TrEMBL record:
Protein name: Ribonuclease P/MRP protein subunit POP5
Alphabetic keyword roster: Hydrolase, Nucleus, tRNA processing
Catalysed transformations (reactions): Endonucleolytic cleavage of RNA, removing 5'-extranucleotides from tRNA precursor
Gene Ontology BP, a term: maturation of 5.8S rRNA
Function: Component of ribonuclease P, a protein complex that generates mature tRNA molecules by cleaving their 5'-ends. Also a component of RNase MRP, which cleaves pre-rRNA sequences.
Keyword match Nucleus: yes
Class of this enzyme: hydrolase
Source species taxonomy: Eukaryota, Fungi, Dikarya, Ascomycota, Pezizomycotina
Domain of life: Eukaryota
GO molecular function terms noted in the UniProt entry: ribonuclease P activity; ribonuclease P RNA binding
Organism of this sequence: Penicillium cataractarum
InterPro entries: Pop5/Rpp14/Rnp2-like, Rnp2-like_sf
Subcellular location field: Nucleus
One Gene Ontology term, aspect cellular component: ribonuclease MRP complex
Enzyme Commission (EC) number: 3.1.26.5
Length: 207
């Protein structure tokens, strides 16, 4: 029995165009606003089936019938989106091992996703077919031979982003504390004196 070998591409969707970032009214404010805006959620209009179709069409446009054939044909399931999270703009795509570079290159040249925007917001670009598309960048983070490895990498990167955002928040809080110290050194000095007195009672003299 022949075993079909696949590759799993972990990717995220970035929005570097600041004109399409959500406004501060939606909660994107503070020192980490730009970081969160670049990793903003994707519209629910982007479904796994639509993303797979977009990849196949891009491969066909770049490599013609030869590229589509390498994926198994236009109607085949050579490219499958195994995981798609609009909230985190993360996806895992499965494709044949022999043609994962075609999929990777197609993702590199894909520059838009469907966008559902409120009237008057200006986000997205109106297309001739009447729909809206939001400029974006597809970034491949990892190519793995198993689904589990791709999932572990996605979890690791999500944790790292959370730590990074929290670090920015803590840095901003510390900056406020430092400025407060400079504005009220007398108050801080008195607090430190009280703290030293309390610390003296925390240790026993018996050795």
């Amino acid at each position: 029995m022949v075993r079909l070998k696949n590759r799993y591409l972990l990717l995220d969707i970035l929005y570097p165009d600041s004109t399409t970032w959500p406004s501060s009214k939606t909660g994107f404010s503070g020192p980490h606003a730009a970081q969160l805006a670049i990793h903003a959620p994707t519209s629910d209009a982007l479904t796994p089936g639509l993303l797979a179709k977009m990849i196949r069409e891009e491969v066909g446009e770049m490599y013609g019938d030869w590229g589509v054939g390498k994926l198994g044909g236009a109607s085949a399931m050579g490219v499958q989106v195994k995981y798609l999270s609009p909230a985190t703009s993360t996806a895992i795509i499965r494709c044949p091992r022999a043609s994962f570079r075609l999929v990777w290159s197609a993702l590199t040249y894909m520059s838009h996703v469907p966008a559902v925007t409120e009237p008057g917001t200006g986000a997205g670009q109106r297309r001739p077919n009447g729909g809206r598309e939001r400029p974006c960048v597809f970034r491949v983070l990892r190519v793995s031979g198993t689904m589990r490895k791709a999932e572990e990498e996605a979890i690791r990167r999500a944790r790292r982003e959370i730590v990074r955002v929290r670090g920015v928040e803590e840095k901003g809080v510390l900056g406020d504390l430092i400025s407060g110290v400079e504005r009220g050194k007398a108050v801080v000095t008195s607090v430190m004196d009280v703290s030293e007195d309390e610390d003296e009672g925390m240790f026993d003299d018996d050795d």
